[in-house]
Structures are given as structure tokens and as C-alpha cells.
Amino acid sequence: MSAKISILKNKVLSENWFVLRNYTYDLTGKNGNVIRHQREVYNRGNGATILLYNRRKNSVVLIRQFRMAVWENNPRDGILIETCAGLLDNDTPEVCIRKEAMEETGYMLGEVEKLFELYMSPGGVTELVHYFAAEYDDSQRVERGGGVEDEDIEVLELPFPEAWQMVKNGRIKDGKTVTLLQHALVAGWLHLA
User: Fold this and answer.
1) Which residue in 85, 88, 119, 126 has the most C-beta neighbors within 10 A?
2) What stretches of 39-159 show up as alpha helix (H) in DSSP?
3) How far apart are alpha carbons 7 and 158 in whole angstroms?
4) Does the predicted TM-score (pTM) go above 0.90?
5) Cα-Cα-Cα-Cα dihedral of 87, 91, 93, 98, to 10°?
6) Are strands 113-119 and 128-135 parallel, antiparallel or unpaired?
7) What b/e readout covers 178-193, taking b as 16+ CB neighbours within 10 angstroms?
8) Do residues 50 and 112 make contact, with C-beta atoms less than 8 angstroms apart?
9) DSSP secondary-structure letter at 141?
């Protein structure tokens, strides 16, 4: 079922980094009534994220980095612990996530598994995130990681129970990371004991 909308206004508010638009539109509801909405939509492109996990060590590789949006919401900190991720730009999701894993963590990935796709903030952001997982071992770490020239990323290898505890105590608050850690637990790849 597709929505019945009529766009009345589509104004670009910013094209500084990505595109922020202001829309005014009429939405025809199921009952035939028309509701007028005004919304701002941020188009930042689509992305990909990956959980690197090791069954034998019962561990995960995550990253820690500064995020301005997190700082604006919590000026005491701004640091986020998260899974490796990046924008697709002109790459396929798998090509993107392989590049990001190398740049951010230093791991050259073997087989990767596509899990699903999710909108993370559909109330105002267009981004669709492609979720992946891959097993890693120490021999696959061929570079230091840490990101490209404008990034300052710390690579973290954590026992899974510690990562899960960090979700429970609020130290990991990133939605994509929590989703992937939960998936690993439910899939039985990793365990809490």
C-alpha cells in the first residue's frame, strides 16, 4: 500500500554537508480525510554497518569515536561506542562495509553475511542502514585501523559479556550496535557466560 500524498512545498534549507529539505504536503488518510503536514527531512544517503565477532574468543570488535550529535545532546562527553559503519557513497553495501572495516578497525574481512536493512530514524532522516556480520580472527588484522585523516577512532576488542553489560549500564547507546549485539546473542554466535 502506498501513501497518497500531494507535495505543496519542497524547499531546500541546507546543502552544506547533506541535503535538508522542508516539505509541506497533504496526506490522504484511509478514511479519505486530508491532513496537512510540514516536516523537515535530512537526506544523508544510505549506510552500512557490521558486527565483527569471534566465536572462539566470545568477543566483538567495536570502535569508540566522537560524535557531534551525541555531544549536542550530552555536552559532558560526545563519545560513542559503536559497530564499524559508513555511508555507501557510490559503493554497494558490501563493498562499503569492507572498506569501512579496513579503515576503522584494520581488519581485512573474509566472508560477510548480510542480515537485514533498517531505517534508524525515519521521522526525519532518509538513511537506510544495511546490517552485516562477519567472524574475525587475529590474523585478519592487517592494519592499525583508526579511520581516515578526519577521523579519530579507537578500536576496541571486548569480551561479549562485557559489551552486553555496557549496553545494560548505558555505556553503549548506539542503536545499530545494540541491534547487532542482540542479533548475535539470539543467533547463538556469542554467549553471556
Assistant:
1) 85
2) 68-73, 93-105
3) 48
4) yes
5) -90
6) antiparallel
7) bbbbebbeeeebbeee
8) yes
9) B
Helix axes 160-168, 175-187, angle to 10 degrees: 130
Tell me the residue ranges of DSSP E strands in the chain. 4-14, 19-28, 34-43, 47-54, 59-66, 79-82, 84-87, 113-119, 128-135, 154-159
Residue with cell 555507501: 88
Three-state DSSP class for residue 170: coil
| Sequence-separated contacts (24+) of 10-17 with Cβ below 8 Å | 13/40, 17/44
At 51, list the grid cell: 558486527
Contact of 132 with 93, CB cutoff 8 Å? yes
Q: Could you report the per-residue pLDDT of 134-180, keeping only the tens digit for each?
A: 999 999 999 888 877 778 899 999 999 999 999 999 999 999 999 99
Site of grid cell 510540514: 38
- Cα 156 from Cα 136, distance rounded (Å): 13
Element (H, E) at 177: helix 175-187
